[in-house]
Fold:
Amino acid sequence: MIDITTLSELTIDGKLSLGPGASSKDLFEFYGDDLRTWFHQQRASHSAIMVGAGTVRSDDPELTVRHFNGPNPLRVVPTSLGDIPLASRLLNDGGATLVAVSKAAPAQVVAALAAKPNVQVVHCGDARVDLNELMDVLYALGIRSMIAEGGSRLLHSLFEADMVSRIIIKHIPVISGAVEAPTYLRPVNGTSRLSLSRWRLDDMFVKSGVGVSIYTPLAVAA
Ligand SMILES: NC(=O)c1ccc[n+]([C@@H]2O[C@H](COP(=O)([O-])OP(=O)(O)OC[C@H]3O[C@@H](n4cnc5c(N)ncnc54)[C@H](OP(=O)(O)O)[C@@H]3O)[C@@H](O)[C@H]2O)c1
Structure:
C-alpha cells in the first residue's frame, strides 16, 4: 500500500486559489522562505508527487524540489483522455513524469505524450482513471510514499477511495473573496460518495506567518 499525504494551501475562506482558473501559485506570494524550504523538503521526502490534470491545465506546475537540496519525486498526473497541454512544463523539462490515462484515451494523444523525454504513459481504468489500478502500477514501480498536492477533484477522489494517510494544510492568512474559486474538495461528476471521517490533529505550527496543521485518521473503535 502506498502511503499518501495530501499537502494543500487553503485560504481562510476555504479556497484552493484566488479565483476560478487562477493558479494556486498566487498563494505562494503570501509566505516566505522558511515555509517554502519546508514545503520542498516535504516533496523531497516522498518518492512520487501527484496532481490532477485540472491543476496541470491551470497552473502548469513543475512539481520539482527547488528550495531544498533533495531528490525530485516521480511526477504523476491522472488524465482520463490524455487532455494535458503538450507544452506543459512537467512534460518538457526532462524529469520523470508518469501520465495515467484510461482506455478511452485516443491512441494519437497517448503516442504524443509518450514521445516526450522521460514521460511514461500507463492505462488504468475504462472511461476514467481508476486510482486503485494506478496505485498498483506505482507500487510495482517501487513507489511507497506519495504526496498529493491537489486540486479539488483529485483530493475528493482520494478521500472517497480512503487512500489518504496524512493531511497537511497550510492555512494562508487571506480571504480570497472569490465565491467561485475552487474549494478544498469537489466531486468529479457532482456526485459525492464521501461520508464523515474523523481526523486527529497531530501537529500544528507557524512558519513564515502561516499556520501549518497535520492530521492523521482517527481510528474508530469497532
Ligand atoms: N492550493 C493548493 O494547494 C492547490 C494545489 C493544487 C491545485 N490547486 C488548484 O486546484 C484547481 C484545480 O482543481 P480541479 O479540481 O479543477 O482539478 P484537479 O483536481 O487538479 O484535477 C482533476 C482532473 O484530474 C483528472 N482525473 C482523472 N482521473 C481522476 C480521478 N479518478 N479522480 C479525480 N480526477 C481525475 C480529470 O481530468 P480529465 O478530464 O483530464 O480526466 C479531473 O477533472 C486549480 O485552481 C488549482 O490552482 C490548488
About this structure: Residues 33 and 71 are 19 Å apart (CA to CA). The chain is about 25% helix and 25% strand.
